[in-house]
Amino acid sequence: MPTSKSSLENTWLYHEIGRCHLEMHHAADARQYGERSLEAATEAGDELWQLNACVLIAQSHGLSLPPTLFISVMIGVPCCNIIFDSFVFTTPAWLG
Fold it and tell me: Which residues of 42-80 are buried (b: 16+ CB within 10 A; e: fewer)?
């Protein structure tokens, strides 16, 4: 962004824009800004913002995919391995 001063500021700005799109159920735009946020966070070397960006990307996928497909897609996304490696998954009862 032309008016921002650092990669970390870009990370935050892209994340907030992405969250707005997520709240409006604009999955593709939310995902796009999540990916931009992740790129900027990687450039800044900030692991917490990388995780925040990955969560936003995952949430944007969740808007447009059925739950079982969402989980299988997210396990294949490299940045989301941070999240999935920490948990043991069982199929929730509502997925049947």
Answer: bebebeebbbbbbbbbbbbbbeeeeeeebbeebeeeebb
Q: What is the 3-state secondary structure (H, E, C) of 15-80?
A: HHHHHHHHHCCCHHHHHHHHHHHHHHHHHHCCHHHHHHHHHHHHHHHHHHCCHHHHHHHHHCCHHH
Q: Which residue has the higher pLDDT, 66 or 83?
A: 66
Encoding tokens for residue 28? 């593709």
Question: How many whole angstroms separate alpha carbon 70 and alpha carbon 15?
Answer: 21
Please state the pTM of the whole predicted model: 0.68
